[in-house]
Design goal:
This protein is α+β, with helices and mostly antiparallel strands. The protein has five helices and nine strands; from the N terminus they run H-E-E-E-E-H-H-H-H-E-E-E-E-E. It is globular and about 50 Å long.
Amino acid sequence: RLEMFSGLGALALAEVLIEKFQLGAQIKWPNDVLVDDRKIAGILAEGAWQDGRLAWVAVGIGVNLNMSPREAARVDRPIAVMAHELGAPVEQEGFVRDLLGALDGLLRSASHGGLAELHPEIHPRIAGLGSRVSVETPQGVRRGRMIGIDDAGFLLLEEELGSLQRIGSGVMTC
């Protein structure tokens, strides 16, 4: 599933932020990465199908690396910027190298068993896990307790009466 690639991009970025920069990163389903509950990055995956198979995938990862405080102040919601968090500019080439290395390792792991292989790494980093959330979907708003992300990258939501919903896309609010 295409959704898996956004999750892999988010996990790769979270790993780099945590391991290389000691920033407390969390993944906000489906495609954001947060630091201290502020968005530091967004991930989008696009692809095309041919003969029932995924023919290609492009993963775009936008990270707030070195925005000036003035640029950051123009954003209409609280954001995190790596240079501000670290107190120094981020060297872009090294950052991209680290991110691509992390993504390559995760893609190799996922090629054997999808996101199931990565559950131990993903679940501790999910923002809102176990909390009551609201998800705006194309079919309407769903509310319940977020219990995880499945092997295909779907959000698992336990609704009020105990039914389990798999949600493939939407906007989640914690």
